[in-house]
Amino acid sequence: MANVFGILAPWSKRKSPDLRVDAIIKQVSKKFGGIEEAVIAVFNPPAIHGMSQTGGFQFVLEDRESAPIHQLADLAHRMVEEGNKRPELQGLYTSINAETPGYFIELDRTKAMTEGVEISDIFDALQITMGSLYVNDFNRFGRVYHVYVQAESDARDITHYNMYRSATINGEAGDGYSSGQAIGAMEQLAADLLPPGYGYEWTGLAFAQLKSGHLTAVVFALALVFTFLFLAALYESWSMPFMVILAVPLAILGALSAQYIRGLDNDIYCQVGLVMLIGLASKNAILIVEFARRRRREGLPIVEAAAEAARVRLRPVLMTAFAFILGVLPLVFAEGAGAAGRHSIGTAVFGGMLLATVLSLVLVPVLYVVIETMRERGQHDMTPIHDPYPYRVPRDRLSKHDQTPIFGGDIQFPDYLHV
User: Fold this and answer.
1) Using alpha carbons only, what angle is made at residue 84 by residues 83 and 89, rounded to the nearest 5 degrees?
2) What is the Cα–Cα distance from 164 to 22, expressed in whole angstroms?
3) Which residues contact 398 (CB under 8 A, 6 or more apart)?
4) Does residue 275 sit in helix, strand or coil?
5) CB atoms within 10 A of CB 244
6) Residue range 327-333: average pLDDT?
7) Which contiguous run of DSSP H or E holds residue 137?
8) Can you give the pLDDT at residue 410?
9) What CA–CA distance (Å, rounded) separates 19 from 349?
10) Which residue from 67, 316, 334, 402 could staple onto 342, CB 3.0 to 4.6 Å apart?
């Protein structure tokens, strides 16, 4: 087994589409496919150095009942063959070779217990000697490193994972499919092909993706909650923030639609863009709601206040929004190293802001009219049956100079709760 690292020419010399890295991988893989004396796989390096040896995903097939090694090898090669037929997957390969000599070790468990040696310690020692044992990860110099304990290379020849004999299948998502869809396709393939006694695990980037996948929804939900709380403090109201928050789905719809039209995945870059859009979409809505709120306090009817806010705030909303939209165009059309990440976050933010800007000018005034009407109607319905302040004096009856009542008496001014 050997590795060869190909060095590509600079981006400035690879302008044509057939010189892009994906096209080069397909061309080289096609040429190497005709070599019958060896199994040669061509792949991209991993997106995060240290998380795996290759790009794409690493699927670990496990023999959990110690069946003959030939069965594990045949099953791994069958999964590779069937997986390469599916459009969600491409470039599947495995390096397992059933012709490698193996050992059968019969453990004297009675003697081990007599000597006070744990069975798990014996198997760990065997795994370290014959294969390798994963310990943990650590970060250094901006990279993630795996820690393995193993014997010298000439003293080991058996691959194990989680103490089971295993075969690793490497691959990547097909053109137009996301890594999540590729993972789902492999799991469906395993459900269809694996007999009893066999299982699988994910490792590398796929394992990290599955482990942290639910955190995206948590982060997005926390961003919405904190935005709502900030707006509640700003307006001193629990209902008015909904006038702003309900404009956020427009930005999310625009972002995901732009990603779909361009054929991009909902990856981590897109998800960062979605979190950004919460604040960006809220900013446009705040410009309209704040002006309508001010005009309503000045005595304007709710509908007229909303209509005037939409008309007066049209120019500021368009100026700030399109200044930002035009500012992310270099990300949308980026080229060079790292262009894929810039394409994803730029397209998400561009599409989200474009749709949110256009539709929020219509939706936000409508939301203001509906919610403000309900809010004021609720305030009128909360009139107390018994007035605890019988000596209340209207503020227009107070002196403009010293703010003392025109007539004597103890005056109490209650605090009001705005809902």
Assistant:
1) 75
2) 35
3) 404, 405, 406
4) helix
5) 28
6) 90
7) strand 132-140
8) 44
9) 29
10) 334
**Which pLDDT tens digit goes with each residue over 29-66?**
888 877 877 777 777 776 666 556 666 788 999 988 88
Q: What is the pLDDT of residues 107-148, one digit of tens each?
A: 888 888 888 889 888 888 888 877 777 888 888 877 777 788
**Who has greater pLDDT, 41 or 248?**
248
Residues 331, 345 contacting (CB under 8 angstroms) = yes
Place of tokens 């820690």: 147
| Residue given tokens 């997986």 in the structure block | 83
| Residue where the block lists tokens 């070599």 | 35
Amino acid found at 118: E
**Torsion over CA of 348, 349, 355 and 361, rounded to 10 degrees?**
160
| CB of 211 closer than 8 Å to CB of 202 | no
Task: Inform me whether the pLDDT recorded for 374 exceeds 60.
Answer: yes
Cα end-to-end span (Å), the chain: 71
Note whether 273 and 349 are within 8 A (CB). Answer: yes
> What is the enclosing helix (H) or strand (E) of 343?
helix 339-381
Tokens of 16: 């044509």
C-alpha distances in Å from residue 341, one per residue of 22, 233, 303: 15, 36, 44
Residue written as tokens 């707006």?
Answer: 231
